[in-house]
């Protein structure tokens, strides 16, 4: 699924070749859509254009996992090759993801995103470079709040512009709405867990962490994009249910892999500092396992270190060691393997053409074995 | 237009009586809409419901100016009395306004809204009361970012649920989209002006301040709601142009009045601290006039005081004095009077029935003479 793999595979594998063609149409449609938005901002004032520029820079990157899942959901339900509705809904999903990332990075105090400054850092940097007045960090966050809002509004504008298939009372629209509400609720539970977690029913921590994972990520990143593409192509209830039976465990495995990378990932590959999730105080499923399995002393060290922005490399190394020794890393890997197996066995039986099955298999494989 | 006036006027004036009936339908529809959203959040987790609760508490208050303008825009274009599309679009506009306020209050560091804690303060207070872990102020802002995002998504969900009249490629949808993009661009220009303003082409400060006022407020608060209601009822291009000729100057007068109240308003009536706009560093049209007309010493005092969160009551009183003595208050009042006159003279000729004209007259009067 990574952008480096696709060109190699294309030409030999018809699914990869079609996916490459979709990627190109998606990129062109995103440029076209944002280009017309640029005109609206220019009408307001040339000085407002950098707000869209920040959205544009972020949205043109990324692996396009959500757009691609949406595309194969569409194709698997009989949608035509490179169909315009699946291109435009891909743009909508990628813009929604960009909006979520912009606000997430403020919430998580992340200074980098895809190896570049996050949007709030970008605006704080502009402030510093130009030596503007007042608080540059607050200006950065404020501008990023507005950039995220703009991006969220644009994602919906793109989705509506799919036309009748995404109109009021359609299945696709209902899924799009549910996706938005669920991910915001899931993100709220995530930040709530960070501040409440340490003292709140520790025996239920794993249950809570798995619920958060499901709503803030698994459904929104994997299940909903596939279902939205399918619904746009008029998928039956039966096919949509089969899509979910494949995609929800895949989504859970995907996010569990993300949680492992957030602690054990290589900064050179992830583009984020080592152990970033620890500094952010993320109470992931793996952390919940570690807290329930570690010794008292180790549990105290985890609790004391989590959420400390100034956590040093030695402290990160020590926490990694504890998480490994507690067995939490192995338990998480086992859960990833279990969910992955469930997803692949469902995929093998899925009532879709072989080209779609092949494409979904590649995407699924990349989602759970990735290193960034 | 205030909620206190409406009941008195109803019963004698048919426009006021109809408007009261609309308010009731609007309130009921908002409850119904948010009640169904609550079920979505309950499916995620009971613990996520407070996110919607914060949106609900805010959205059920307010003067409903945008919903009412939308209603009379609808009626003036021949829409039926208490028509469901105008009720639901009113809900969408009020939710959009709530979303903007939630994020604005983070950006402006406003602790109060409508006499109650702002949403980020509300969540920070929950954190403090429950003695949760980590940084309560950051938790408050983060939760409010998510609450605003949810509210923004819900405003669009409500707008789409108006049905075919608000579907893709309709005039109403195009206006709704433009409203969102323009207000976010306008808000960005507003925060940019606060940090760039002091050193940037002072001779153009008034021009910039008037452009910001137009996009961040006048169009979105007054012009667009009236036009959206009209478009939903199938208003002609001619009628929509006439609506704008009335509503844009009215919107400018409305925001200029807001700027005067932000410096000279009575905290008992506005529900916000005295001189709040000065502490927030708002570079309003009135401030731009003051900077261009004041003595060098006075200009330095304004520049030094603007944007200082710790500005005391004496400093506020001194800045008020300077703004008065520079003639900026009088110039602003003259501009309000000029725009108001233009709005009322256009309204007198507007091709709408007399009941709509009467209702718009009351709304316009309240918008420019209000004290809160």
How would you describe this structure in keywords?
homodimer, 372 residues, Farnesyl Diphosphate Synthase, Polyprenyl synthetase family protein (chains A, B), magnesium (chains A, B), Isoprenoid_synthase_dom_sf (chains A, B), transferase (chains A, B)
The first-level CATH class of chain A is given as: Mainly Alpha
CATH superfamily of chain A, by name, is Farnesyl Diphosphate Synthase
> Most extensive interface: pair and counts?
A-B, 68 and 68 residues
Treating each run of at least 4 consecutive H or I residues as one helix, how many helices of chain A? 17
- The average pLDDT of chain A is 93
Q: What is the CATH architecture term of chain A?
A: Orthogonal Bundle
Strand content of chain A: under 5%
Total count of strands of chain A: 2
Major sheet summary line of chain A: 2 strands, antiparallel
How many discrete structural domains of chain A? 1
Judged by helices, strands and strand pairing, the structural class of chain A is: mainly alpha
For the largest beta sheet of chain A, what order do the strands appear in spatially? Answer: 1-2
Distance between the termini of chain A: 12 Å
Q: Per CATH, what is the topology of chain A?
A: Farnesyl Diphosphate Synthase
